[in-house]
Each structure stands twice: as C-alpha cells, then as structure tokens.
Amino acid sequence: MKKHLLAASVLLAGFTASAQEVQFEEYDLDNGLHVILHQDNTAPVVTTSVMYEVGGKDGDRERTGFAHFFEHLLFEGTKNIERGSWFKIVSSNGGTNNATTSLDRTYYYEVFPSNNLQLGLWMESERMLHPVIDTVGVNTQNEVVKEERRQSYDNRPYAGILEAIQKNLFVKHPYKDPNVGYMDHLDAATLEEFLAFKEKYYVPNNAVLVVAGDFETASTKKMIKDYFEAVPRGKDVERNYPVETDITEAIKAKAYDSNIQIPALVNGYRTPGFASRDARVLDMISSYLSDGKSSKLYKRLVDEKKMALAVQAINLGLQDYSMYILFALPQGENTMADLQKEIDDEIVKLQTELISDRDYQKLQNKFENRFVSSNSSVEGIASSLATYYMLYDDVNLINTEIDIYRSITPQEIMSVAKKYLKPNARVELEYLPESAKEN
Question: Boundaries of CATH 3.30.830.10 in the chain?
C-alpha cells in the first residue's frame, strides 16, 4: 500500500510540475517596447499590464519619492480620459485595476472580461502616450501621498523600522532613502521636474507590456501595434548606482516611534540582489527561522521560552542589494539583549549544523507550494512575466526558478548563513518608544 501511495505521489508531483509550465511569446516593437503574451482560454478573463523600470532608487536624491508619486499621478487622466474618470471606466466595464511601486520598478495592471481587452490596451497606451501632468494633478496627488504616508507610515506602530534600517544599512546607494520619499522633496518639486521625470522613465523602451489570459493572438498583436507603436522611443536610461563598502563592524543605531509602547530588536544585514543564488538560499533560511509556529525562532522564543511576543526573519529582496531583517518584541522582563543572545544562538546553530532531513523536506514543500500559487491565476502570471523580464532578465524563470530552490542543499544553507549572517556585518537597531528618547 505504501509503495502505491509513493508511486501516486511521484506521479502527482510530475503532473503538477508539467501542468504549471507557462507558455509565452515575446517580441519588441520598433520603439523598444517589449511585449509578452501568455494565452489561456480556460476562463473569459484577461490581464493587461505595464511594468516600467523606475522605482524609489531612481532620480535626483533631492527629489526622492517621484516614482511612488507617479504611481498615483498617472491615474489622474489623459488627453482622452477625463480627470478622475479612470477608475469609473474600469469598474463600469467589469474590470479591476491597481498599481504598485517598489524601490526597483512600477507596475500597472487591469483585469477585464476578455471582451474588454481592447479597452485595457487603449488605457495603458493612453497612460504612456498622453498623460496629463499639470499643477492641478500634482497638487491633488501631493495631498494623497501625504495622507498615505500618515496612514501607512507615520501613524502605524513599527512602520518606521524599514526606513530606519535603510538609512543605516546603506550609505551611498539610493536604497538608503524610503520608497515613498521625503515629503519636503515633493513639496519643493516644480512641474518642470515632474515632466522631466516622466520623459526620462515612462517611455516604451523602459517598459514591458504583458497580456495574459483569454485572447486571440493575431488580433491582439494588431491592437498592440495600433495603440503602442505611435509612442515615441525615449532616450536610453543610463544607470550607475554607487557600490557600498562592506560592513565589517556592527553598526549600532536607535530610532523612535510615538505609536509604540514595546521596544523592538531589529538586525539588518546587507545581502545580494534577488537574482543571485545566495538570495534564494536566504529565502529558505528566513522561512526556516520564522515561517509558521513550528519554525525555529518562533518555537524557541515565543512558544517554548516565552521570551518574545513576536519574532520574524524577512529576506527583503531587491535588485541591486537585498535586506535581511530579523525582528523581535520582548515579553515580560526579558530585555533586547536577552533576545539578541537567543537569536544569535539559533543562527550559530544554523551555521554549524546541517538542518534535519525533515526540516529540509518541509522547506522544499513550502517553496513548491509558493511556486504553484504564484502561477495559479492569469493576474499572477502577468506580474511574474513582467518581473522576470524587467528585473531578472530571464522570462523563463517563471518555469525554472523552482528548480533553483530544489537544487539548494542543506550544506549550502549552512554555508550561506555563515557567509552573510555575521554579527560584525549588521545594523543593530533599537526601535524604541518616543518616551524613551533622551531630552
């Protein structure tokens, strides 16, 4: 019976891997716009999306936050879409839409019933070709962004941790600045500066268009040509970000938050960009340490010793560098120094002992699960295709990245932990209540 079950599970695993393979076609328009098509006619839904290679790290360091600002500004309206009507058009035609900005890229997308594919393509071409950028829109979105910062950062407990880690972990690279930027930079910006930012970054040769879902290929290619070929090519974007010096001595830092009562221990490590193999190993390490109640740090600090209210290991992947962050909240009489010792002990164990076969298999199962989930909808597939093209330079990673995770060994996990999670190569941040600040 066990043999039959094992054989069935092997067959099922093989079926899952093959069923998840994503077919796609890619090509370029004459103006440099890269196009990726993924056809899936199983449901009458289609996603149109555009990713621009512009994020919080781009632009003048005295004008931070422009990319995030444009995420909002480019919904204002266009030459042919009346101001304030973008979302109404989408919803009244049965669609949904959104946009996100990271430190590395900006992503816009719509999900429509497939009979509205043409509308989605037209709207994204309008955003690229005819956006209205004027004083009214800038002033409106300036207030929107300020309110977002108040709600998402200034008034949320522990929301300032990432910004505090960034400014201490990076000295020269623009990752030192928050993605949302500094409000005084946006207040000081002129309309001419916003227009120049648009002309530099929101051009077809700095973008990828993805269409995923229920469509007919020949007619879709014709619509893409009709709507996007007229967008003029921009100048090639030159990027030359400064390289950080290695951290060889722990950086001690403090930050304060008026929204908290319990201090937080935070460790930040500067690690390789997300396209590297080591970054994927660090993904596994973070899952091993704090993903779920059976993870090592949670079980040790929260469950068994009851020293912490919460503990988390996060591998925050970015293109040029990543940030590996450990976070813990002390419970009762336990101090941050107590937590630091316990966390360091667990990391030393990871650096000197191979993880068990059971833990290793559990990690493999988790990452297989994530892989399947990420490709479970055309919306997710569209995002993955754009990301793998724009930031990894390999679209087929949508099918093969899981093989990288499968090939990671327990020995490699031990080696990478030893290489990067060193006490002398980190920021040690005390994140404290405002009341703890010395007068």
Answer: 22-228, 251-434
Range 23-39 burial, b when 16+ CB lie within 10 A, else e: ebeeeebebebbbbbbb
Task: Let me know if domain 22-228 sits in CATH 3.30.830.10.
Answer: yes
The distance in angstroms from the start CA to the end CA of the chain is 72
pLDDT at 152: 83
| Average of per-residue pLDDT across 378-400 | 97
Task: Give bridge partners of residue 426 from the DSSP assignment.
Answer: 269
CATH code for the domain defined by 251-434: 3.30.830.10
Q: Which residues make beta-bridge pairs with 34? A: 28, 208
Residue 265 pairs with which residues in a beta bridge? Answer: 328, 430
DSSP at 331: -
Q: What is the CA radius of gyration of the chain?
A: 24
- What three-state secondary structure class fits 155? coil
Cβ neighbours of residue 242 under 8 Å, at least 6 residues apart? 172, 173
Contact 17, 405 (CB under 8 A): no
Under DSSP, the state recorded for 111 is: E
Q: Which residues contact 305 (CB under 8 A, 6 or more apart)?
A: 342
Contacts of 401 (CB under 8 A, 6+ apart): 280, 371, 388
Under 8 Å between Cβ of 224 and 211: yes
Report how far apart, in Å, the C-alpha atoms of 252 and of each of 62, 168, 323, 430 are. Answer: 26, 9, 16, 8
Q: Which two tokens stand for residue 218?
A: 């020949």
* Residue 241: other Cβ atoms inside 10 A: 14
> Any idea how long the chain is?
439
pLDDT 10s digits, 331-342: 999 999 999 999
Give me the pLDDT at residue 20, please.
67
- Given its phi and psi angles, is residue 422 left (phi above 0), alpha (psi -120 to 50 degrees) or beta? beta
Tell me, yes or no, if the pTM score tops 0.85: yes
Query: CA 365 from chain center: how many Å?
Result: 22
Helix, strand, coil distribution of the chain in percent, nearest 5 = 50, 20, 30
30: helix, strand or coil: coil
DSSP 238-297: P--PPPPPPP-SPEEEEEEETT-SS-EEEEEEEEE-TTSHHHHHHHHHHHHHHSSTTSHH
Give burial (CB, 10 Å; 0-12/13-18/19+) of 365. exposed
How far apart, in whole angstroms, are the C-alpha atoms of residue 71 and residue 228? 20
Q: Which of 129, 87, 130 is nearest to 110 (CA)?
A: 87
